[in-house]
Write a structure and sequence with these properties.
By secondary structure, the protein is mainly β. The chain has two helices and ten strands, in the order E-E-E-E-E-H-E-E-E-E-E-H. The strands form three sheets. A five-stranded antiparallel sheet has the order 5-4-3-7-6, with helices on one face. The chain has a three-stranded antiparallel sheet with strand order 8-9-10, with no helix packed on it. It has a two-stranded antiparallel sheet with strand order 1-2.
């Protein structure tokens, strides 16, 4: 059985030009009015892809869909705190600027994914 090839770079708009950003430099993808990628250095880029499409294409060992708004790289999860009703609050790096809560139905999958390899 062959392993699925996951992209090593994400193409983004950078002003008038397009550029490729290494997947390892991606901190997380966030969906507000449109999808935006944030790098580990805190720089943001607009994307023309949905979180659903990115979730399918990216390596699930590295990226996890925290909730409807966020898809994060493992390296960006700074801390995780248990909340009531089985939910988990996450601290991201670079900071997201709002509370990030994983719903109870995704919490077990997150805990399994975030375990040290």
């Amino acid at each position: 059985m062959s392993e699925v090839a996951h992209p090593q770079e994400i193409e983004v708009a950078d002003g008038e030009a397009r550029t490729a950003i290494a997947v390892e430099r991606v901190a997380y993808f966030v969906h507000a009015l449109r999808v935006r990628m944030v790098t580990t250095q805190g720089r943001g880029y607009a994307l023309d892809r949905s979180l659903d499409e990115l979730e399918v294409r990216l390596d699930p060992r590295r990226f996890f869909r925290l909730n409807d708004q966020l898809l994060t790289h493992r390296q960006s999860v700074h801390k995780a705190h248990a909340l009531a009703k089985g939910r988990i609050e996450i601290e991201l790096w670079p900071p997201f600027g709002a509370h990030v809560v994983i719903p109870a139905e995704r919490a077990p999958a997150f805990q399994q994914w975030w375990q040290p390899n």
